[in-house]
Design brief:
The protein is of the alpha/beta class. It is 40% helix and 16% strand. The protein contains 12 helices and 13 strands. The protein starts with 6 loop residues before the first strand and ends in a 22-residue tail after the last helix. Bound molecules: nicotinamide-adenine-dinucleotide.
Length: 396
């Protein structure tokens, strides 16, 4: 069938298998062109490995330092007449490329929050790898069924304490409008922390530790975001920010566990705001990203997920100066985004942006093309008029 994008609000309900594969191969080529990652990880578990920062983390480890990787993700597989979610196609393309390069790559498509999936992954690590030396925790999920209570928690992206009014953009229609978001209830605050906080990361590390599957010196990293003051009511100080505070609490607890056992360390890397399926669902943030892209591209400092993770690996985790922590103990790979001169320009442009001048003051075109790229559309060299089978088998 001929597969075209069908955008519904902040999601695209179709994905292009060849386009997703080409996108993955672009990232692989980027890492390969940078040359081998000396002292890189060798046996890696990535939780949330099929898109965005997790996919980049997997590619960086596999094609940077020849790592064996196990990926955990939650994607809708393709059917003979129905497209998959992009993470399915991404993972199929990654796995094919890894196998071709002689690299071990195993996949678990299921609920990372469940006990069963953890048990299955642990058994495979034990059987195939013995231990892992890097665990990347890169989940972004709207809900979590708690494995002990059976309760399903749904995250809510809301301010805390008071309502928040600001500009937002409908990225599909190009309309800038004012949005007011009512504050979260106390239940929503707790639910969002249950989904996006650190408890599940701790459960993974504790399970790996108890099963003795963490190699000496093992590292674990989870990703967070802080961003500019203009988004703080909805991000840093909102329900998601409180959940991220809980992730930071978990990082300290996990770090203590790893250290106590003579293993390694755990930490949070604060990453740059980028177009991903997760970030496009947050009100106000897409407008900020459109402005940010314009400024950072003009300055030549723009990076995507792959560039961010490659820099994290090469300059901090496995090379360069080693890990550099901020006052709160986090690694800041959002440093270029947060440079004062970049943020001063954001602050200058923010009040000026309207529907009429959106294309002039922001990189809305770049936002849209990055968004479509997440689903495999708009990739040079792909013939989107051509018939293509939507069904792609996951390589075993
Ligand atoms: P994403 O939506 O691209 O990826 C989410 C991943 O989680 C996918 O692999 C998905 O399959 C997986 N997943 C979701 N629910 C799952 C479940 N129940 N079981 C197994 N897998 C599941 O998201 P992203 O933007 O790359 O976010 C990853 C992390 O990076 C998050 O912690 C996010 O807060 C953080 N981060 C994102 C940004 C940004 O701007 N996108 C910036 C800084 C930090």
């Amino acid at each position: 069938m001929v597969i075209k994008p069908k955008v519904r609000g902040f999601v695209c309900v179709t994905a292009h298998p060849a386009g997703c594969a080409a996108h993955v191969n672009e990232w692989i080529d980027y890492v390969k062109a940078k040359g081998p990652l000396k002292n890189g990880p060798k046996k890696v578990l990535v939780i949330g490995s099929s898109t965005g920062y997790g996919l980049a983390s997997r590619i960086g480890a596999a094609f940077g330092s020849g790592a064996a990787t196990i990926g955990v993700f939650f994607e809708r597989p393709s059917e003979p007449d129905k497209t998959a979610t992009p993470g399915w196609y991404n993972t199929a393309a990654f796995t094919a490329a890894a196998q071709k390069a002689g690299l071990y790559a195993k996949n678990f498509n299921g609920d990372a929050f469940s006990d069963q999936l953890k048990t299955d992954v642990l058994a495979t690590i034990k059987r195939d790898l013995g231990q892992v030396d890097l665990v990347v925790y890169s989940l972004a999920s709207p809900r979590r069924t708690h494995p002990k209570t059976g309760v399903t928690h749904k995250s809510a992206l809301r301010p805390v304490g008071q309502s928040y009014t600001n500009k937002t953009v409908d990225t599909d229609k190009g309309l800038v409008s004012s949005i007011t978001i009512e504050p979260a209830s106390s239940a929503e605050i707790l639910d969002t922390s249950a989904v996006m906080g650190g408890e599940d990361w701790e459960m993974w590390i504790n399970a790996l530790d108890e099963a003795k599957l963490l190699a000496p010196g093992a590292t674990s990293v989870a990703y967070s975001y802080i961003g500019p003051e203009v988004t703080w009511p909805i991000y840093k100080n909102g329900t998601i920010g409180l959940a991220k505070n809980d992730l930071e609490r978990a990082a300290k607890a996990i770090n203590a566990t790893l250290k106590a056992h003579g293993y390694g360390r755990a930490f949070i890397s604060v990453n740059k705001a980028l177009v991903t399926q997760a970030s496009s669902a947050i009100p106000v943030v897409p407008l900020y990203i459109s402005i940010l892209y314009k400024i950072m591209k003009a300055k030549g400092t723009h990076e995507g997920c792959m560039e961010q993770i490659d820099r994290l690996y090469r300059t901090q985790m496995f090379g360069g100066t080693g890990l550099e922590f901020d006052a709160a103990g986090r690694v800041r790979i959002d440093d270029w985004e947060m440079r004062p001169e970049i943020q001063a320009e954001v602050n200058k442009l923010w009040p000026q942006v309207t529907t009429e001048n959106l294309a002039q003051h922001t990189d809305i075109a770049g936002y849209r093309s990055e968004f479509l790229k997440l689903f495999g559309f708009g990739i040079p060299g792909i013939d989107y008029e051509k018939d293509i089978a939507p069904h792609v088998e996951m390589p075993a």
